[in-house]
Structures are given as structure tokens and as C-alpha cells.
Design brief:
46% of the residues lie in helices and 14% in strands. The longest helix is centred in the middle third of the chain and has 24 residues. InterPro entries: Emycin_Estase (IPR007815), Hydrolase/PRTase-associated (IPR052036), UCP036794_erythomycin (IPR014622). Keywords: Methyltransferase, Transferase. This is Protein-L-isoaspartate O-methyltransferase.
Length: 416
């Protein structure tokens, strides 16, 4: 109990109350010094997380010259949004562009909160030259079939010498009916895979790289779809036998994809990354490390240096969320109970029932470095079993550079 009271007192002494993005100025200035700003979330369905991340992103773009946003989404779907905000397209509005998100869980990006940000990005870009326009990119690994289809379509459009190899590779995947898990089972347990066709295609694309038009955005699109196909094949092959290693493959892919996007925008470019806390918060400060798991936050700190990476965690005390009962089920609005006793969220609440943020480099409280449960909700959620698996033991001041806490939240608004 003494330890709990001490932690509550430490939070009271160190936290700053906020009501709008303008109140976050100390955090924003710190974040703006980094090359990469990682903005987390403790659920994939909370309106306040999306709205505040959008406001932070706008501020960093306008005041600190950030060049692109990368999100925990599929490359092909996000590329349609990127096209809409940068170039003339047939899309009439953000909602048309967001229809590209067809794979479950669509609500993660096809929602009103993201539509509002996309509208702002387009308006911002309309006054800029092409090379100065802000990009919006997905760096996740799941879009095996979508990326393969994009490769075939692009090669056909330019009469590429590699189109037949691409079609053969795609035909190899077709019997699995866009069910990547089926492919993983076939590859892992029955030795029936498409690796030979895929390696042949990727090798040929590399050999013939001088053939392709020097349209940098088209080249980036081709390169990232190829990277997704290569790493997704590995991900789904491993997923059915080793969940921890498949996690590592996914997060390493996201960092590799981010590096390619960063190179596209140039050596001086600066990027904003939106992902779940479990990806952007350093895995070494959680029990993930005991399981041999890494994540984006850890890998980026290791590769680019801690001074170049600024990670902001997000959490909340109670509210509602968009999620599903089980994977693939229809989404629903689900109430989220008050945070578990003794958790970081409960301690933040006890220190004052209002929105607040912590800057860990501006406090010497060693208590922020103790291991305490930290809530994490994914795309599936059952509040009755929250205590059994929704709290990640975390050393908050090691996991993040800053933390934003909401007292009350509401579910985001998926598009119909």
C-alpha cells in the first residue's frame, strides 16, 4: 500500500493537466526534436486516441516540418489514401479513398476520425509542390494477396518482362482463396508453398530494375508491395507454429518498411508513426523481452539512437471501445470498465480524475521505473476476462518517453 501511495504522489508531482493539444506544448517541442515520433494507443477503437494523434501530427507537420505519417495498416489500402491526398484521382472525398480498406478490421482506418485527418492532409497538400507533400503510408505485413495483386496489375500496365513470373506466383497463392492462414498451414505442415515462385519473381524484378519507369512514387509502391509479399509469406508460414517469432517478423517488417519510406522522402525527412502501444513502446521494458520478442519501439531505438526516436504511450481509465468478440466477427461498441486496481491507469486516475501527461525525461522519480500492469486492448475484447490478459507488466519510463492519459473515452466512429 505504501508503494501505491508513493506512486500516486509521484504522479501528482510530475503530471501536467491538459484539455487540448495546445496544452501539450512541452511534449510537442520535445517530440519535434526527434526524426521519428511514435504515437501509440492502448486500443484500436478509441476516438480520443485517433483525434489527439491527428492533432499532434498536424502540429508536427506545421511547426516542425514532418514529412509523412506511417500507420499500422496495409500498404495497398493506405496507398490509395496517399494518392488521394497527393495527386488527382477519381475519388471525390476522403470517404471514397477510405473504401480501399476492405480487409477486417476495417474500422481501424475506415472511420470518421481518420476521414477528418485525410481531409486536412489533402487541403494542406493542395498548396504544396509534389516533393513537399505529406505522405500517408501503411507499414504492416498482412496484405499478402492484395500486394501480390497490385504487383501483377502494375507489371501488366507497363508491359513488364516480369509479368508472367508474377502471374505464376499469384496463381500459386490462388488456391488458398485469400486465406493467408490456410497458406501458412499448407507451407508449414505439408511442404506445399509458393516460395520458389516468389523468389524467382523477386530476383527477376531486381535484375530488370532498370526497365521500370523512374516514377519515384510508383517505384516505392512496387518496392513496398514486393517487400510485403516476401515478408508476409514468411510471417504466415511461421505464424502457425511459433506465435512469438511471427510477431518478430511482423515488427521487423514494419521497421524495414519505415526505412524505405524514410529513404524515399530523403535523409533529412521526419516521420510520424501511429501504432498500438505494444508496438511503439520498447519491448525491453515489458515481459515481452522474457519471451524473446522485440518490437518497433525497441528496434528503432537500437537502429537510430534514442535521441532520434520519441515514443508517446496512450492510456485511459474507463470508457468504451470498438472491437469484436472474436477475430473476424462484426465490430460492436463495448464498454470498458474502470482500470484494474494497482495498474498504471488506476494510479493515474487516483492522482486526479482529469486528462494528464507525463514527460519522463523531466522527472527523476524512480517509481516510474517499477513494473506495474498497463492496459492493452486489441481488435478483439471481452471485458469479463480483462484481468486475465489485458495488462502488460511495464516499466513506464523505460517503455516510453512520454505518456498521455485520458480519464473518460468513447468508441471511435466506423464508416458505414
Amino acid at each position: 500500500m505504501v508503494q501505491t501511495l508513493d506512486l500516486t504522489k509521484a504522479i501528482k508531482e510530475s503530471a501536467t493537466r491538459f484539455n487540448s493539444v495546445s496544452d501539450l506544448k512541452p511534449l510537442l517541442e520535445k517530440a519535434g526534436e526527434a526524426k521519428y515520433v511514435l504515437l501509440g494507443e492502448s486500443t484500436h477503437g478509441t476516438s480520443e486516441f485517433y483525434t489527439l494523434r491527428a492533432e499532434i501530427s498536424k502540429w508536427l507537420i506545421e511547426h516542425k516540418g514532418f514529412d509523412y505519417i506511417c500507420v499500422e495498416g496495409d500498404w495497398p489500402s493506405c496507398h490509395e489514401v496517399n494518392r488521394y491526398i497527393k495527386y488527382p484521382t477519381s475519388y471525390q472525398n476522403p470517404y471514397d479513398a477510405l473504401k480501399a480498406f476492405k480487409r477486417w478490421p476495417k474500422w481501424m482506418w475506415a472511420n470518421e476520425e481518420v476521414a477528418s485527418l485525410v481531409s486536412w492532409l489533402k487541403q494542406f497538400n493542395d498548396s504544396k509542390e509534389n516533393k513537399s507533400k505529406i505522405g500517408f503510408h501503411g507499414i504492416d505485413v498482412y496484405s499478402l494477396f492484395e500486394s501480390m495483386s497490385e504487383i501483377v496489375a502494375y507489371l501488366e500496365s507497363i508491359n513488364s518482362p516480369d509479368v508472367n513470373k508474377a502471374k505464376r506466383a499469384f496463381e500459386c497463392f490462388e488456391p488458398f482463396h485469400h486465406e493467408a492462414q490456410m497458406y501458412g498451414v499448407s507451407a508449414s505442415f505439408y511442404g506445399k508453398d509458393c516460395l520458389e515462385e516468389l523468389v524467382d519473381l523477386l530476383h527477376s524484378l531486381h535484375v530488370n530494375r532498370d526497365f521500370y519507369p523512374q516514377d519515384l512514387e510508383a517505384t516505392l509502391n512496387m518496392e513496398l508491395n514486393s517487400l510485403v509479399v516476401q515478408n508476409a509469406e514468411d510471417y504466415y508460414r511461421v505464424m502457425v507454429t511459433d506465435g512469438n517469432e511471427s510477431w518478430n517478423i511482423r515488427d521487423r517488417h514494419m521497421v524495414e518498411a519505415l526505412q524505405k519510406v524514410s529513404s524515399f522522402y530523403g535523409p533529412e525527412s521526419k516521420g510520424i508513426i501511429w501504432e498500438h502501444n505494444t508496438h511503439i513502446g520498447d519491448a525491453r521494458a515489458t515481459d515481452m523481452a522474457d519471451e524473446g520478442m522485440v518490437n518497433v519501439g525497441q528496434l528503432m531505438r537500437e537502429q537510430f539512437g534514442r535521441d532520434q526516436v520519441y515514443a508517446v504511450g496512450f492510456g485511459f481509465y474507463e470508457g468504451s471501445v470498438i472491437a469484436a468478440d472474436t477475430w473476424g466477427d462484426p465490430y460492436q461498441e463495448i464498454p470498458v470498465p474502470k482500470a484494474q486496481m494497482g495498474s498504471w491507469e488506476q494510479q493515474l486516475h487516483e492522482s486526479g480524475a482529469f486528462n494528464k501527461f507525463l514527460l519522463f525525461d523531466q522527472t527523476n522519480h524512480s517509481l516510474f521505473n517499477q513494473t506495474v500492469g498497463h492496459r492493452a486492448i486489441g481488435v478483439t475484447y471481452n471485458p469479463q476476462y480483462e484481468h486475465m490478459g489485458n495488462y502488460v507488466p511495464s516499466r513506464l519510463s523505460e517503455r516510453y518517453d512520454a505518456f498521455i492519459h485520458f480519464e473518460q473515452t468513447k468508441a471511435l466512429q466506423p464508416l458505414n
